Amino acid sequence: MEILSVAEMRELERIADAHGLSYAQMMQNAGNAAAEVILQRLGRSSAASPRVLVLVGPGNNGGDGLVCAAALAKAGVTTQCYLLKPRGDDDPVYAAARAQGIFMADAQNDMRLRVLHQMVTHADVIVDALLGTGTSRPIEGTLREVLREVSREMSRRRQANRQVPSSTCALIALDGVTGMNYDTGALDPAAVPADLTITFHAPKRGHYCFPAAQACGELVVAPIGVEALAIDDWRSVSNLQSPIPNLQLADASLVRDLLPARRLDANKGTFGRVAVIGGCSDYLGAPVLSARAAYRVGAGLVALAVPTVVKPGAAAACTEAIFISLPESIEHHTPAALHRIMAWLSSAKGGAAVVLGPGIGQAPQTAGFIGDFLDALAAIHDQLKGLVCDADTLNLLAQVPAWWSRLPTLTILTPHAGEMARLAQATVGEIQSDRIGNALKYADAWGHIVVLKGAHTVIAAPGWRGVVLPFANPAMAAAGTGDVLAGCIAGLLAQGLSPMDAAVCGAYLHGAAGERWRAEHGDAGLLAGDLVSYLPDVIHQLKK
What we know:
Helix content is 41%, strand content 14%. The radius of gyration is 27 Å and the shape is elongated. It starts with 5 loop residues before the first helix and ends with a helix. The strands form two sheets. It has a ten-stranded mixed beta sheet with strand order 8-17-16-15-14-13-12-9-10-11, sandwiched between helices. A seven-stranded parallel beta sheet has the order 3-2-1-4-5-6-7, sandwiched between helices. It has two domains: 6-244, Rossmann fold, CATH 3.40.50; 252-543, Ribokinase (UDP-N-acetylmuramoyl-L-alanine:D-glutamate ligase, 3-Layer(aba) Sandwich). It has helices at 6-18, 23-43, 60-74, 92-99, 114-122, 141-159, 212-215, 252-258, 286-296, 311-317, 338-347, 364-376, 392-397, 417-424, 428-432, 435-446, 481-494, 499-521, 528-543, and strands at residues 51-56, 78-83, 103-106, 125-129, 171-174, 196-200, 218-222, 246-249, 273-277, 301-305, 322-323, 352-356, 384-389, 412-413, 449-452, 458-461, 465-468. It contains 19 helices and 17 strands. Strand 15 (449-452) and strand 16 form a beta hairpin. By secondary structure, it is of the alpha/beta class.
């Protein structure tokens, strides 16, 4: 499923209009599709005759709301509308709603919002159709007072435990909650979180960026007719001057098609080799987590290149791994150990994928080792199936001018927001303010794959191609989960996936394992090692 920006959605609607699907018809389609979703939810409600209140804004989102209200009333649902501003009888969607006998009130003629208070109090379901994608200004004035009234009622219901049964929804937003930024996920303080959001044609970026993502509730995508148009590639006929990303939401079907085949006559060499280079005296377990994850996603052989102090514990924790002995590195990686690692990589039959960084630390000698290692990779280019740079490797790279030019083509970078900020010479706030846009921009500028970790992880490739994960799981906010992710990606690189496919597939398996754990145990208490044991089950389920 594609994910669009506001500008892209507007351009698609313009092209649709030029191809014969008018704006008026798209509004009709949107409102009717929303009504159909709501009727399905009301059909599962225990309320004998549910009452729906539609809050109507002055723009197109309000028009969608009026069409939705008319469709609900026509279906026999008791429906009322409250307009932020009056609409004239020459407005066709307003006239059509009036023709259904819907009671209308408006804020302009409602002293102290007393009518609104009564309508909100007695409604079983409230539909937010106040502001849509075109508004990003701060909420103030009458609109803020209207939202405040709705917020009070929602709070009262929660406190009194009088919510509409969970089979339906108390507050439904059309396209998005009023007050969200559909591109960045910023959220106005006056916004009221929804239980369900019905968005049209495609999700928008802001639906997967916080804090707006937290306010969307369940997200349902409803068609508006654009899908039926014979437009082979709307991007190719677009008038937009800026790049139009190919941005997708990852799902099971997408990842299922990426999973590497498993031949019946396979041996360990069939499924590739992984070298995990990491660990130091302060971080003993990180490389083990990566190694075990690489095995669990199907890699045939994993070698650990760790300092001497790490080796005994690593051997006990991951008995399946082999080791590249580094007697020159006692507590940290040193340049003197480089020749042993390069000799192993050079001799690896069929090549190897490399994870560089789990627990590697930031000692001065480690910085020297990483620089020398990156320079040496050019000599074994044909043997390298891919490089994953993780953890302190990213922090050390950020200190090197034009660091991206030192890396092999399409290196996979796996930063969290703090590491991303250092790589981009930005602040964490700047990165988080537009996670999707920043991941796409910097992946293209650097020429590498960026896996921007966090709730709704973003995977971006040069050429403005991106994938967003559907997972936002607080249980995953635990040390070591990033090491598992790096191992997942490297294990798939070893099996022959391209860097982008390995990043998408590995990140999805990682997130799905976390979701499976949360379903069984809740949203706290997960250890990074727990994820590893769930990976084969997730893969097995995807293949069914």
